Amino acid sequence: MARAVTFLRFGGVSRGRVGFSDVGSDLEKGSQFERRLFVPSFDDHCIESCHVSCRYCITPWLIALVGLITVWKHRHFILLRLVRTGVCLLVFAFDISVHSLEMVSINLGILHYVLDHLYGAFVHRTKLSTPFFSRGWGGSKLDLLENMVKQLFPEAAGKNWPPNTVQPIWKTVWETKTACLREGVFRTPCDEQLLSTLSPENHYARVAFLVPKHVPPQKMACVVHLAGTGDHTFERRLRLGGPLLQENIATMVLESPFYGLRRPSLQRGSKLLCVSDLLLLGRVTIEEARCLLHWLEVEEGFGKTGVCGLSMGGVHAAMVGSLHPTPIATLPFLSPHSAVVAFCEGVLKHATAWDALREDAAQKAEMTLEQVRERLRSVLSLTDVTRFPIPKNPQAVIFVAATDDGYIPKHSVLELQRAWPGSEVRWVTGGHVSSFLLHNDAFRKAIVDALNRLQWRESDSSL
């Protein structure tokens, strides 16, 4: 049974099966007209005639909703492709000529900087995702971690802080004639006090190990790759390390605490729930990375080792290189000297839940927004790498920084170089996002060069 519903048209072409007569003149004039749209009845009740505007038709809205959900689900993939395409299109938009190379260089620098802020605005300043620290400071956990980190500095300065022993359980993912990829699991080596502050998902660490075959470990090097913000999987870092197999350099990728399969159930994406989680993430990452380096050196007998990381991972790599008891290659890529730079000065300040931090702090004492910012600065100053000891071989420390980084200012990188005399800074042309996408070759060359500045753990006569 069908019932007639009167449908009001605004000069467009109708959708669906319609029955109407003598509307040709109305179509030519583009004026409003009525037609009768027949729809099936789904019950025994009569559907009364009513006037409905075309803009309330549900089909376009459903299509738009499905489109938005699809875009959000694949947002990271789409963003990377858009950034790459945008770089090419915007570069061609400039009037490039032989006589204006200097002006083009300046314009490209501005372009890279603007791209960082556009990416940051899309990812961090929209209401589509939860901000960092939406659950506040972390209560007693933050107090505990602050005390633990403060005790770390005099202890680290006075003696070699020996890593704990770990024994990963391995399974082979794939194997070819020249290389092998394994994944391992091990219990995090943190002490019981620190372990009690971790969610159950973080009690075990995961690691991927890409190694060349038919080469003795004593004649190989291995670099541990640490995760940057938002890097939840092994794939990107394995792609960075894969070509280094030709140089007899193995790659070990650590899944960061609070990321990937170690992400707490209540956490959305990379947005840590509490300030204490950021300190906890760093503390656990440092401990696990140092233990893996110790395993590579002592258990596997690798001739050289190193650690690298991009952005947040670079900060952790610098800390690991500083605290490790033996000389290793240390390679922070696109990294600040402190998390203060990222969360209080850079783009990520727009992704911080300042109101939630102020409300949480108000349980102890009323604070203004400026006081909350200063409090966060004080807490995150514990991540200042310039406070850490100089690595055992500062000549094997190479910082790779971007000339027009919208996240990490130049002065932050230079502070690290001044704190560690003998280290080297290399500059790549680009911003934070574009350098992450376009300069992997520069990162690989830095890895090779830093490892070449180390002595083999065995004498030359035995090699």
UniProtKB/TrEMBL annotation:
Name used for this protein in its record: Protein ABHD18
Pfam families attached to this UniProt entry: ABHD18
Domain of life: Eukaryota
InterPro entries: AB_hydrolase_fold, ABHD18
